[in-house]
Amino acid sequence: MSRYWSPFVQELEPYVPGEQPAMADPVKLNTNENPYGPPPSVQQAMRDAVDARLRLYPHPDGGELRTALADYHGLNTDQVFLGNGSDEVLAHIFLALFKQNRPLILPDITYSFYRVYCGLYGIDYETVPLADDFSLPLDAFPADNGGIIFANPNAPTGLAVTRDDIAALLERNTESVVVVDEAYVDFGAESAIALVRRFPNLLVTRTLSKGRSLAGLRIGYAVGSPDLIAGLDRVKNCFNSYPLDQVAIAAGVASLRDETFFENTVDAIISERDLLADELRGLGFRVLPSAANFLFVCHERFDAGGLATALRERGIIIRHFERPERIAGWLRITVGTPEQHQVLLDALRELLKADNKAP
Asked: Which domains, from first to last, does the chain contain?
């Protein structure tokens, strides 16, 4: 702690991102990155954007990318908001929409950044427990609230709810904002964007990091009613008027134009996810059904933290969450390439064999 910090900073509990290991050539399955790179068209668009225009500030609202996203989703440009990754978009949402007199409602097991933002902005919140099978009981969310947020598919479980379930929640909850975080929706969940025109209190957040292989560029966005987007713009323009640079804007536009590459990549990840799940079940793991680009698993014979450490010693990085205690026995494994999966499975078989020989 520093005596120079603002007093409230000493009480903050920051988000802990997944490890970016310094080891040479790890099998990196811990941060839900896409194992396949972006298409050549995106890389060319980025090269073309590096010219004399770099002396100029980019368009404050994302310009061409905002228009491209509106067209892609069949919306108007005033229904789209852009930010430096979906985490920044979420940060603006918490300040612009969730700082209310009533508590924010969120699942007890979900993306841990939500609680971090509550601490940062002084937002009261209450949690709704996931069911015993880790499914999200939207019908248990209380009507008296200052807003609702959940990820669909949820993180780190990978389980999803249906669009009809979301619509039913919105029909019950009309007096506060409902945010659906769709960071992983490309891999099998139903998007709520089709409900945006019907429900003015719905805001859906997205990212180009996962399905479109652009995590290194930090492109996030939200879609919703013009009223909600205007509130986000007010906060953004008090924080950073130029959240996306020229190269990121060009890459985002090019990605949206190459739908075939995107669909082929997503299909490959879904196929590999399902194959890996079957292999892990064959090794005695419990594997939750996933609609994301990761698997949430546990094994009755292994301590989760110990298994993560043993794999790391073999150059394989997966994610273990020590908190909350309810999921301390579980591991999250990012879907990678077939070659990465083979290394992982061989290591797990070796560890299982060694455990069988233990006295």
From this structure: 7-37+260-357 (3.90.1150.10), 40-257 (3.40.640.10)
